[in-house]
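Below is one protein, fold included:
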Amino acid sequence: MMRWLRPVIITLGLMLLWQLIVWLTDAPHFILPGPLRVLETLIAQFPLLMKHAGITLAEILLGLLLGTLLGLISALSLVTWGGLRRWLMPVLVVSQAIPVFALAPVLMLWLGYGMASKVAMATLIIYFPVTAACFDGLRQTPTGYLQLARTLGANRRAQLLQIRLPAALPAFGSGLRVAASVAPIGAVVGEWVGSSTGLGYLMLNANARMQVDLMFAALMVLAVMALALYFSVNLIARRLTPWLQESTSSTTRGDSQ
């Protein structure tokens, strides 16, 4: 029961704190609207918000899918071919020295103001966390497992599919959680730089017209989307590694005894 009540209590507490700040500062509604005013705007502008939220959600999901696939392929390639690792790994590290947000105008120039540039932005911001996490997981496969597989005559392909990949799933799940957290950032930043649809565009447009309550409503919708995406990915990661949940439960029971 507490597991489900805790998020509700935290949300209500944050709302109460928000309203308290509005009362104490006596801020005008065009600077800091109260939560009730934002909820009223959310209900009144719900069709408009859902229209733009659908575009942003599609950009986030496509970026998450492409970034995860490219990251997984890159990690497998780095582990499989040592020569490629010596050439590609420095490039990956150096690429992180360039702020991804600085590439947004370039992506707009190359890919236009449509969905492609926002998907590319989300893909770029997701790619490195997934690659790094999966690569570390593949490298940290217990040596005993690999030696036993070689003794039993398993080839490199069998070792990769049946030992390395399952052993790397916990690290891969951590990378997916990070990717789910940062994917909305890439999509929204791309919409801020240049777009005619999406929640990022709606927030900029509302800010320019001093419709701060609409801007906060769009921000709330984006936050709910981001939380739903994170918890969905977290659930998938937990389902992929059921043995971790069993070991955690066993440890908890042992500590309680």
Q: What stands out?
A: The two ends are 23 Å apart (CA to CA). The longest helix spans residues 156-193.
